[in-house]
Amino acid sequence: MRFFFLHLVLFIGSSFIAKAQQTGSITGVVLDKNTQLPLANASIQMQQTQLGTASDSSGKFRLLGIPVKTYNVFISRVGYKPFTIFNSIINSGNENTYTVELEPQTGELAEVVVKSNKRTARAATLETPLSVQRLTAEEIKSNPGGNFDISKVIQTLPGVGGGPQGGTFRNDIIIRGGAPNENVFYLDGIEVPVINHFQTQGSSGGPQGILNVSFIEEVKLSSSAFDARYDNALRSCLS
Asked: How are beta strands 60-67 and 23-32 bridged, if at all?
């Protein structure tokens, strides 16, 4: 009888351990993009599943018991634009941590028509769109042929070209026909002059990048209308 009881306890314990090894978890915080204040009651949903949770009064959330798989994480809140984290890999070894910034959703007002009695020529206005493209760490890791190199993944974006030598040896970034050395790079607000191993003199590219994608949350490429904090970039800013 004692042997049967011990065997039953061991069987139940092993089943719990096996189940824990087949699931993972995510954690993080939801912030207002403009004010950087925490957002409570934000909905966090693992797409194509019934799993979900909500952020607390500090904007923090944690979701346990997620089956090991790759998911898209959908974050939404009333009054804000929804945000999706693509290709979030859930495994039992590490807990994924995210910092999500939601942008307030503004309402659209009716158009305002201004009329004048003066017979003057109509002035044309030229609007330059803000060319900003963003990549998450998961998108960089899953890029075919990128080899976890941020510069090579950037080369596949619209308006971006590769190095003058072509092939896979150089990972220069060329924006609208500019020179490879006309780009600036920022890491956590600090300018980084070199982001590649064995950088070619007079260029910005090399055979392989030195930035570890595992420690990067997001990459933003600005190809025009730079912020004032990026000083006098000629072609693009990678931050």
From this structure: antiparallel
Q: What is the CATH number of the domain that holds 90?
A: 2.60.40.1120
Helix H or strand E encompassing 75: strand 69-76
Q: Is residue 148 part of a domain?
A: yes
Beta strands in the chain (DSSP E): 23-32, 43-46, 52-54, 60-67, 69-76, 83-90, 96-102, 132-136, 160-161, 174-175, 183-187, 190-191, 196-197, 208-209, 218-222, 236-238
CA dist., res. 68 & res. 80, Å (int): 30
Residue 116 belongs to a domain: no
State the number of CA atoms in the 13 A half-sphere of 47 facing the CB: 14
Residues spanned by the domain of 142: 132-238
Give me 161's structure tokens.
């070209």
Structure-block tokens of residue 143: 């890029």
Q: Minimal CA–CA distance to 181: which of 201, 162, 166?
A: 201
Other Cβ atoms closer than 10 A to 76 = 15
Q: Please tell me the total number of residues recorded for the chain in this structure.
A: 239
Question: 169 Cβ partners below 8 Å, 6+ apart?
Answer: 163, 207
The answer to whether 171 and 165 are in contact (CB under 8 A) is no
Q: How far is CA 163 from CA 111, 141, 154, 192, in A?
A: 46, 21, 12, 20
Q: Which residues of the chain have pLDDT under 50?
A: 1-18, 20, 118-129, 166
In a domain? residue 90: yes
**Domain assignment present for 39:** yes
228, 145: one domain: yes
Task: State the pLDDT at residue 71.
Answer: 92
Pairing type for strands 83-90 and 69-76 reads: antiparallel
